[in-house]
């Protein structure tokens, strides 16, 4: 079996571009290949693949304060495999139409299921980011996504209200 030599690399360097070279482990050592394959299958829990889908829509546009107002529901155009589980969500939304309301706004990203189950994340501080859903076991085939905006705590009509013109998600799943 050949030895693997690694250069002294500081992996804490941001944007470090490490590329893996393809190799055939069977040619190296069949016993180690079998051991690694068995461990890989054990850790993956029988996962067979991965995929993603993207959707964009109109964001929330509240006209009253103190209430969560939802934007468009974002769903896949084609359904992922029925056994797929959401692993992470990359989101982005337009935050250029807040006007003087910036300090009073709360934006949340929501994942919902037809059964009524819901998960939320406060994404007010970052209009772009990735949310991990590891361990939540959210079925990707029936999940939908939306954003809500709440302005202040008082239930009053808003003058020149803020809004999110567009929002989008890229949903990553494994099956």
List the keywords.
mainly beta; Jelly Rolls; four-stranded antiparallel beta sheet; 175 residues; elongated
Describe the structure.
Strand 4 (105-112) and strand 5 form a beta hairpin. Residues 4-13 have low confidence and may be disordered. The protein is elongated, with a radius of gyration of 22 Å. 11% of the residues lie in helices and 31% in strands. It has a four-stranded antiparallel beta sheet, with no helix packed on it. It is mainly β. The two termini are 34 Å apart. The chain has one domain (50-174): Sandwich (Jelly Rolls). It has helices at 25-28, 30-44, and strands at residues 50-58, 69-70, 85-93, 105-112, 118-122, 128-132, 144-151, 166-174.
Number of helices: 2
For the termini, the CA-CA separation is 34 Å
Q: What share of residues is helical? A: 10-25%
The Rg value, from CA coordinates, equals: 22 Å
Present the secondary structure layout.
Layout: H1 25-28, H2 30-44, E1 50-58, E2 69-70, E3 85-93, E4 105-112, E5 118-122, E6 128-132, E7 144-151, E8 166-174
Antiparallel strand pairs: 1-8, 2-7, 3-6, 3-8, 4-5, 4-7
Short précis:
This protein has 175 residues and is mainly beta.
């Amino acid at each position: 079996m050949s030895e693997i030599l690694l250069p002294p690399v500081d992996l804490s360097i941001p944007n470090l571009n490490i590329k893996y070279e393809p190799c055939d482990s069977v040619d190296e050592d069949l016993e180690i290949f079998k051991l690694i394959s068995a461990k890989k299958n054990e850790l993956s829990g029988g996962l067979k693949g991965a995929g993603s889908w993207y959707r964009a829509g109109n964001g929330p546009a509240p006209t009253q304060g103190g209430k969560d107002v939802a934007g468009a529901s974002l769903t896949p155009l084609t359904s992922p495999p029925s056994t797929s589980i959401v692993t992470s969500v990359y989101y982005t939304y337009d935050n250029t139409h807040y006007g003087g309301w910036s300090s009073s706004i709360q934006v949340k990203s929501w994942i919902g299921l037809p059964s009524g189950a819901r998960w939320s994340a406060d994404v007010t501080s970052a209009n772009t980011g990735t949310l991990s859903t590891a361990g939540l076991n959210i079925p990707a085939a029936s999940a939908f996504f939306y954003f809500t905006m709440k302005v202040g705590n008082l239930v009053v009509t808003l003058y020149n209200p803020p809004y999110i013109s567009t929002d989008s998600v890229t949903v990553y799943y494994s099956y």
